[in-house]
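Q: Can someone sanity-check these two? First one:
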Amino acid sequence: MKLVKLLANLGYGSRKEAQRMIRAGAVTDDSGRVLAGDDAPPHECIRVRGEPLDPPSPLVLVLNKPDGYTCSREDPGDTIYDLLPQRFACRNPGLNPIGRLDKDTTGLLLLTDDGKLLHRIIHPKSGCLKVYHATLARPLDGNEAALFASGTLMLQGETKPLLPAPLEVLGPDEALVTLHEGRYHQVRRMFAAAGNHVLTLHRISIGGLRLPDDLAEGDWRPLTAAELAAVFQ
């Protein structure tokens, strides 16, 4: 791939802007040699203003989503894309969340530019269970686990019952809920159907991947190959 096209695809600017960066000497190899606009050297050898080039496509990121951020570029206010380098919004192909989290839901969020991978993870048949930690407005009644696991719970406004969703009680007003699917505001609506209200909701795992302990709220990094494999375990 031509260097100018590579830079444009990674969001560093339009092709004209990438060409100007190259002509200005802002693009070098790892030895400091200024690169021209011909065929790109190995990706890991390229530097832009002295910094390593962003990871190539296909890319998967893990983000510890904070409260108050939405997962759509179209929404007003703060979005998850504000937590990433601005150029990431211009990548081609673009980055999309693998299963959105609500504005008031925190925790593990994956993003990718690989459409096939995205659909593979979110499809109910993938086996990639999602586990959420919920704190509630009032104590649990004790019948929620049976209700959620029944496979008969119907959410308001829907005609198809939910798949069984195991619940593990952690305390009088907190629990873990495991989902096989991802309907709109599902955990919150499930507890509403049980006569309760979710105060906080935090996703802690997708498949066999847990939110990394060393990833602070609002931070992100590329997912390793081993971590991606863990999603399907």
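And here is the second, same format, sequence then tokens:
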Amino acid sequence: MKTIGLLGGMSWESTQSYYRALNEGVKAALGGLHSAKIVLYSVDFAEIEARQHAGEWARMATMLGDAAVAVERAGADFLLIGTNTMHKVAPEVQARITIPLLHIADATAQVLEEQGIARVGLLGTRFTMEETFYRERLEARGIEVLVPEAAERETVHRVIYEELCLGQINEASRATYLAIVDALAARGAQGVILGCTEIALLLQQPHTRVPLFDTTAIHAAQAVRQAIAARPEHRGHE
């Protein structure tokens, strides 16, 4: 089994979901007492959040790049960044390491293609919804991406940082999110991406008839497949 590298703590609430999904996925695939081999580097999210809202992306690219180097040195065979938003600096992180980085948007795009989704709604932080670093990877594969209206985007963003990242699940916020999902569906979205790893703590498929695409689950499932795939011929010492 290959060793999964995970940059987590952004927030630790969703990193718990990754850890569970990775281990449950390996157990389902291999049975018995099998669990995932994981190297986890968990950051202090307060430092990340402050720099996100200050626009200090170059500094964060360095921080996550340093963490990725540490994960590679600890023996990881490939890397996950356990957050959608910080994939804004994924190219800089990949440039620092020799192991592959499994991009969360690419994993999601593959699932959308498999299910024949050509137009999809996107929920996430303001950075993910409004900037191009995430959306362009879907659009490059012919998938049209719809985002909520400006006021709705602010609400989605606020709930993520002020509630979900703190482990707070509020029914009123769930109702608001579901109304936004319905609005995206009314605009032609065939499904909605939960493009922040905390959103799945609030919204699950039983809450709506609109297909939801949980990026945490999708990303973890891809990592499990990669971890249990046949390893290439050994090159040198491990």
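A (reply): Looked at the second one. The chain is about 50% helix and 10% strand. Residues 232-238 have pLDDT under 50 and may be disordered.
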